[in-house]
Design brief:
FAD/NAD(P)-binding domain; alpha/beta; five-stranded parallel sheet; about 500 residues; about 30% helix; binds nicotinamide-adenine-dinucleotide; binds flavin-adenine dinucleotide; 13 helices; Enolase-like, domain 1
């Protein structure tokens, strides 16, 4: 503290944001120094537990439970169950969400209280952070923090296109959904990306009237046009989907939100909803950081230029981790980057490059959308010579047995080396197949190597084997498998 009325705390490392990345950074930095400030301006508990991964999966779990009932008659089982008690559904989502948040709060309570500052932080100069009251109004314990190293772990927030603001107080974000006391009657979901697809389908399956509006034909962050076409077909077969609607206009009519649009056939439509959910992407929380005072080089988006293998911004003493860097905005990547940033900041000026994990992403729609390794668009952009193998799940044995036989998986292998490069897919329980593939790619296995691994019968993984065999043939490294090969087991 300084004695001139300008209170200042001097630390080795200041971490801005105590989400997943910030907490992970704190744990690493704490191993090497006791002079730390972990500064949090919003609520503790992390985006993932409060309004992200966990509550969304709770809502999806309820929706899937009801959806399975619809398949019962096809198995010869009569059921008149399936009435949805919206209040009970949302109570379980909130209760379980609170339980997950409680675990995070317990972890924060275990941190040294002298390290934790409730305040909003922004740069005053490259080594000084100016503190102002936190979101809950609590006054910061000091006015400034002066730090040898600074970690930016400020997360992201929903990006809202101006045109959607016409919905006024009926415009909602994913954050709002998890505090609902009951399910609404009708919701227009804007954005057919990851959040729009997960929440839109879940609400539809819980009996809410949903219309999913996308843009430019994009769906679920899929880059492979063949997989995207299959995903569009499957989702459109279940709920109203407009990925290419033109002249979209939003207006309020009393308590209702009205969406006017022209469908690809040229027909003009208007539809009324209780709410408009904006799921139109997320933007990193950096513009309130006064980065212009940080001395950092910024890119065209105003984000610090950084190295993902060190998390270091340029050759500075500043590190950036999690959604704030807009690089890989996923939970396990935020945790990894926080770990890396904490370790590097503590070691600074000795900074070492680390190999990052193989990319892996899962959209918890049904069927699940997933990717592993390099995506189709990236392979094309990088000019890689690659071949493709694919399998449809329509006739895949185990998928048919379970009546989940929908979707398509495409795997990519490198010409010449036969290395497995990546995959994109929509299909049953594909979260597991995507993991297997990401692990194989990280282990630098060839397609032939993966085919040497055991495949149990009858499993959905046998579908992966079919795609890999086709890929091996397309690479010129193996004979075409016989149609319905019997050593694979029936329906493999
Ligand atoms: C609906 C939804 C579902 C999701 N589902 C999944 C999923 O299934 N799987 C998956 O991998 N990922 C999922 N994600 C993404 C995942 O939640 C994020 O990638 C991850 O939580 C980001 O963590 P973070 O530490 O970067 O940010 P956060 O957890 O948001 O932490 C940032 C913290 O910084 C604080 N802060 C910001 N600015 C300041 C400042 N100036 N001063 C002080 N404090 C500040 C904030 O208050 C916040 O506490 C989902 C996201 C959403 C929204
Ligand atoms: N299962 C998961 O891992 C999971 C779940 C949820 C969120 N997340 C993370 O959160 C991030 C943000 O999710 P998101 O769904 O908001 O972003 P997103 O980038 O996945 O999708 C946003 C979509 O909105 C569309 N869009 C933009 N403006 C529009 C408009 N005016 N009208 C209609 N469509 C419009 C875009 O074309 C895009 O398809 C994801 O990229 C992901 O990394 C992950």
């Amino acid at each position: 503290m300084r004695g001139d009325g300008m209170s200042m705390r001097e630390v080795d490392i200041a971490i801005i944001g105590s989400g997943t990345a910030g907490m992970s950074a704190y744990r690493q930095a704490r191993k090497r120094t006791d002079r730390i400030a972990l500064i949090e301006g919003g609520p503790f508990g992390t985006t993932c537990a409060r309004v992200g991964c966990m509550p969304s999966k709770l809502l999806i779990a309820a929706a899937e439970a009801r959806h399975r009932l619809a398949a019962l008659s096809a198995f010869g089982i009569a059921s008149d169950a399936g009435a949805v008690d919206g209040r009970a559904v949302m109570k379980r989502v909130r209760d379980e969400r609170d339980r997950f948040v409680g675990f995070v709060l317990d972890a924060v309570a275990g941190f040294d209280p002298a390290h934790v500052l409730r305040a909003h932080a922004e740069f005053e100069d490259p080594h000084t952070l100016k503190l102002s009251p936190a979101m809950d109004g609590s006054a910061p314990p000091v006015e400034r923090v002066r730090a040898g190293r600074i970690i930016i772990a400020t997360g992201s927030r929903p990006a809202i296109p101006a045109a959607l603001r016409a919905a006024g107080d009926r415009l909602i974000l994913s954050d709002d959904v998890f505090d609902w006391q009951d399910l609404p009657g009708a919701v227009a979901v804007f954005g057919a990306g990851v959040i729009g697809l997960e929440l839109g389908q879940a609400l539809h399956r819980l009996g809410v009237r949903v219309h999913l509006f996308g843009r430019d034909g994009r769906i679920g962050a899929i880059s492979d046009p063949v997989v995207r076409a299959e995903a569009t077909r499957l989702i459109a077969a279940e709920l109203p989907l407009s990925l290419d609607a033109a002249d979209v206009r939003v207006e309020r009519d009393g308590e209702a939100v009205v969406v006017h649009f022209t469908d690809p056939g040229g027909a003009a439509s208007s539809e009324r909803f209780d709410y408009l959910l904006a799921a139109t992407g997320r933007t990193p929380n950096v513009e309130m950081l006064a980065l212009e005072c940080s001395g950092l080089e910024l890119d065209a988006r105003g984000l610090p230029v950084f190295d993902p293998q060190t998390t270091r911004a340029g050759d500075s003493h500043v590190f950036i981790a999690g959604d704030a860097d807009a690089d890989r905005v996923l939970l396990h990547e935020a945790a990894d980057e926080g770990h890396l940033a904490g370790e590097q900041a503590a070691r600074y000026p000795a900074v070492y490059r680390h190999t990052r994990r193989t990319p892996l992403g899962v959209v918890f729609s049904d069927p699940q959308i997933a990717y592993a390794g390099r995506r189709h668009a990236q392979l094309l952009a990088d000019g890689v010579a690659f071949a493709v193998g694919e399998v449809s799940f329509e006739d895949q044995g185990r998928s048919r047995v379970m009546l989940v036989n929908h979707g398509l998986l495409r795997v990519y292998g490198e010409q010449g080396s036969g290395l497995l490069l990546g995959a994109e897919m929509i299909g049953p329980q594909n979260e597991h197949i995507a993991h297997l593939l990401a692990w194989a790619i990280q282990a630098r296995m060839t397609v032939a190597d993966v085919l040497q691994m055991p495949f149990y019968h009858p499993t959905i993984e046998e579908g992966l084997r079919t795609a890999l065999r086709e890929l091996l043939t397309a690479l010129g490294m193996g004979a075409a498998p016989p149609l319905h090969c019997i050593d694979c087991g029936p329906g493999a």
